[in-house]
Structures are given as structure tokens and as C-alpha cells.
Amino acid sequence: MAGSIVFDPLLPWPVIIALAALSALGVALALWRGLQGWALRALAALVVLAALAQPSYQIEDRAPLSDIVLIVEDKSASQSLGERLSVTQNAADTLAADIAARPNTEVRRIEVGDGEADTGTLLMSALSDALAEEPRGRIAGMFLLSDGRLHDLERTPDLPAPLHLLLTGKETDWDRRLIVKNAPAFAILGEPVTLTLRVEDEGAAPGATQTVIDISVDGAEPQRFDMPIGQDIDLPITLPHGGLNVIQFTVPEAEAELTDRNNTALVQINGVRDRLRVLLVSGEPHAGGRTWRNLLKSDSSVDLVHFTILRPPEKQDGVPVTELSLIAFPTRELFLEKIEDFDLIIFDRYKRRGILPAIYLDNVRNYVEQGGAVLVAAGPDFASADSIYRSPLSEVLPAEPTARVIDNGYRPAITDLGERHPVTSGLQGSDDWGRWLRQVEVDPKEGDVVMSGIDDKPLLILNRVGEGRVALLASDQAWLWSRGYEGGGPQLDLLRRLAHWMMKEPELEEEALWAEPTGQTMRIIRRTLEETVGPVTITRPDGTEEEITLNEVSPGRFEALYTGPEIGLYRLAEGDQTAVVGLGPAAPREFEQTIASGTALEPAIDSTRGGVRRLENGVPSIRSVGMGRPAAGRGWLGITPREAFETMDVTQTPLLPGWLVLLITAVLILGAWLREGRRT
């Protein structure tokens, strides 16, 4: 029970104050004129003003509410180090029992795990959510059982009671971690990319100045180098191939080190070509020549060298050569000295005319076998006696001309094999493509026929020769699509894919295995020309293996989703195809800093006059302290009793009944009148 005097004025307070001022003025006037009843008049005014304020005596029937103490238990990944989890659990049980034994006190225990998508430890978010669910007027204290390494300090709420941190780590803990400061997503093949590495020792480290680091690319045998501790080191790395390169850096675990989870870093860099050099040789001017030129010039990553033979040597028209060309055709320089500088050579309707001697074409054959690429866009020239096939290039070309040229309209079509080949797969709508009007009949010797023409005769043949690649397009009519003839067709996509396949772009390999990681999950992709594939063998970072079956999602493309149980490097294998991929972040956020510390939380703790204590020294005792008083001392931590209550019933009794107000007022006014009248 609790009583108090409350007011429920009949008039607004400003009006009552104005009346009080007017009454005071009247009393002052009576006093100035010397009237004997001024005191009685003042008392009468006070009684009237008090009546207008309408005072009442209020009695509340209150039910006391218990105080609430929050215990937040950090069970994130960094708490799994050493004995931190067991220490946290035992301390939370002891603390909860101690607090629950106090009169009129309740305990709320909140567990905090790892944040999603490597967001770290979200202690303040959990504390904010807990405070939002409880009446702030009942919160008597908050205890955080953690290593102090949180990642959402900016979400610290307005704290209504003392906040305390009980550290789970030990003062003797120390840890060594590897930091990759810059890791670009892309790098140019053939040019070194510089990565900045740093090895740091934290905590009670032994004071070493040097260690070693192992570096491996795509899971190959690692190379070992000396590495100073506490210094930034710039490491130049040249990527070995195009596409995804997985680079792993590892520092060996040191004796008594807290964990080796932050001694390894994975960096995934895509290797891209800076410039692709293409040599285009047109045997004679024709409409298709501009198509090839426009295609290659439209790609900013392609350096094009284009020569068109305007006049063959046998043509004698008396026009000086200097008036026919801007520069002489540097055949020796291009086909003997600098042929290795080109990624692709295109012969567009070229035939033997004595301009390129057999020794030059033999050098082109050797260039293909050593890893180069040649594309032949054939016209009637390919079927003639002067065909480029009647040269040393016949050893690498995938088909032989029959000397027949078919001048009939037809619609190019994708073969069954072409549906699976990355150069032609997905080129839908062949029934609506425009017609081509000419095709050179060829007899395939080897390679993959991915497109067909008249009577299903081979139109586009792809082949691998030695380390290189060769393509034969048995028509010079692709330019009709670019002109929109009869609706046109996917000329740009087809020729671009063809050129990039020949230049060995990884995304166009017909036999390939790779994975696309997203967090801890990867999409495994197997592309093949075969109709079926076997299961993919996955080797985890710990060396264990498991198999996963792929499902065909489109012709020649098989996929499956796989979630890795741990962060690290995974190896994939299916048949003769292998791949490596890194799952998880390059350096997990939970293990970036592992030494227990209360430095980050000190501002929030100090603002509530709380304290930081290490659990290795035991669980502190709990005391009650007043609001605003220091809440931490030697061996103890404080909570603030809030004395909250719930009002069950309220009773109000007027202090001045109406009849009594009238009686007192009348008596005082009458007394003042009689006193002043008697005097006169």
C-alpha cells in the first residue's frame, strides 16, 4: 500500500494561478489601506483556491515485480577454442543459480551463435532483441560471457542497467594469423599480380621474428618461402592458366598457438587475357570479309591484323603495287618471325597464289601443333585446284574437299553433337534462321561436326591437333545473317564463340569440370560431349572423400549442389577432369582475432559503471548497488534493484468536501466583515 496527495483542478492551472495573483493583489490592497480583516480575507482566498485545485488523498494497492537479469552466452566459433565453451557453460550455470537465489530476481539466458554469411559474433544484436522483449524498468543488470570479439558494436542499445563482461580466454593465450591484404578478383595472364601478405602474432606471443609460408596453386605441390613476422610482404604471382585459379597460403602451426584456423588463406583469382592477337588473311575482297573484320574489331580485347589480297600476282593490269596498298604484305615477318605472337590465324577464302610459299604454310602447321589456332572460312577457292588444302596445312585440316560447290539455298542446322558442344549449344531457333546460298562439299577426316547444311552435309567442323585447334567453316555465306537475309541468324554469337573456343577460353571448353562457390555451397558443373557422366569425387580439406551424382540440366551440361561441412580447399574429380575450389571466406571473420579482450566493449561498460573480469580467476560474487553507483569491485559485480511494481487498485478521497469549503469560506469572510465593521 502507498498513499499520496494528488490534484485534479476544476479549472486549468493558468487560470488558478491568475486567480491566486488577483487574490494576492486584493490582500495587498487591504493591507495597504490598513483594513484589520486582511488576514481573514487571505485565508478565505486560499481556501477557495485550494478547493479549485481539488486535492485528494490517493491510496494505491501495489504488487511488487521481480527484477530481471540478462545473461548472454557467446557460443560462436571463436568460443570453441581451448576450454572456452565449457568455461562459459559452467560460469553461466553458476551465475544463473547465484542470481536466481536472490529475492525477487529472475534470470534470462540468451545464447548467441555465429552470424549468417560470415557476419561474425552479433552480441549487441542479441542484447538489443532481449531488451526489446522485456520491460526496461525491470532490468537490473546484464552479463556478457564472451571472449569480447564481437562484430556489431555499432548496434549497442541504450543500456538501462550495469553491463558486465566475463572474459573466457586466458592471459597466456597467443595466436599467429595470416593476413592477405589485397586479393584482386581478376588478373591478366602472363603479367604478375602483387598480393600483400602479413603474418602477425597476438597475445602473449613468444617473440619470434620469422616463420615459413607454403604457397600452392590449384592444389599442386606447395612451395615454401621464409616469411618475416609483423611486416607487410609484396608477393608477385603469375597465374598459370585462364579461368579460376585457386591460390592457398599456409603458415605452419606454432607450438602452443591458440588455433591454426587463421593460418591458411584461400585466394581465388580469375585469369583473363589482356589482348588477343588475331591475324586475318582474306584471299580476295568479298562481302564476308567485312563481317569478320567488324566482328573482331568490335571486341575491345582483340588486336586485329588484317590483310586482303587485292590483286593476285598473275594479274597484270599495269597498276603499280604502291598504288594498290598502303603497306607491303610482310609475309616473312608474319609467318616466320612473329607467328607465335598470334592467338588465332583466320584464312578467309584464301587459296594458293604463290604469295605464301609452302614453307610459310608448313610453319603455320607447326604453329597449330605447338598450341596455335587456325580457322578456315571456305568458299569456292577451297574446292579448286589451288585450295589451301593442297598445301602442308592438309595435315591439320579436319576435312578434305571433294571439289564440289553446291549453290543452293539451305538453312544451317545444329547437329546432335552440336547441341552438346559449347560453341553451338543454346543457339536456339534454327527453324527461323535465314538461308545460306552456298556450301563446299567436304569429306570429314576427324573432329566434331557441330553444324550441317545441305542434305546434312558437314558445315562446321572443330578439331584439336596436337596442342592447338583447327576449325573449318565450309561456306562463305555467314555474312547473310549479319545483313538480316530472310530474318538472319545468330551470326555474331556463333562467330564470337568460335573465335573464343579456338583461343582456348575456359568457359568454352567442351570437356570441363568446375564449381561456382557461394558461401559454403558450391554448384558443381560438368560439361561433356558424352551422353552420361559418372559421379564426382569430392575430397574435403581434411582428406575424406565422398561421391555426388550430377543431373543433366541441358544437353552436355550436368550439375549438382553441394554444401561443404567446413571452410577450406575442396578437390573435385570425374574421369580425367579435375578441379579445385575454395569454400567459405578467405579468412573466416570469427578467427581474424582470437585473443580474448574487453577493449571493444569498454566504452559501453564504462557508461553503465560496469566491469570486466576474467573467468579464469573465478566467477565474481553478485551485490546490489544503487542506481548510478559503481557496479564493479574486487571480486564482485553489481546489479541495480529496480523496485518495479504493478498497481492493482487505486482509491481517492477528497481532502476538502464541498460543504466544508463553503462553511470555512463563509466564516472567514463574515469574520473579516465583523472585525472591520466593529472598528468603524
CATH superfamily membership of the largest domain: Class I glutamine amidotransferase (GATase) domain
Content-based structural category: alpha/beta
Q: How many strands, which pairing sense, and closed or not: the largest β-sheet?
A: 8 strands, mixed
Which segments are poorly predicted (pLDDT under 50) over 5 or more consecutive residues? Answer: none
Number of domains: 5
Strand segment tally: 37
Instruction: Please state the CA-atom Rg, rounded to the nearest Å.
Output: 45 Å
Termini separation (Å)?
55 Å
* Shape-level CATH architecture of the largest domain: 3-Layer(aba) Sandwich
What does the model show?
It is a single chain. With 680 residues, the protein is of the alpha/beta class. The chain has 5 domains: 2-63 and 647-679, no CATH class; 66-170 and 596-643, von Willebrand factor, type A domain (Rossmann fold), CATH 3.40.50; 175-273, Immunoglobulin-like (Sandwich); 276-502, 3-Layer(aba) Sandwich (Rossmann fold); 512-583, Immunoglobulins (Immunoglobulin-like, Sandwich), CATH 2.60.40. Helices cover 21% and strands 34% of the residues. Strand 25 and strand 26 form a beta hairpin. Helix 1 (13-33) runs antiparallel to helix 2 (38-53), helix 2 packs antiparallel against helix 12 and helix 6 packs parallel to helix 7 (358-369). The longest helix is centred in the last third of the chain and has 22 residues, at 658-679. The radius of gyration is 45 Å and the shape is elongated. The model has no long low-confidence stretch (mean pLDDT 88).
Short structural summary:
The protein is of the alpha/beta class. It has twelve helices and 37 strands. The strands form nine sheets. Strands 16-15-17-18-24-23-22-20 form an eight-stranded mixed β-sheet.
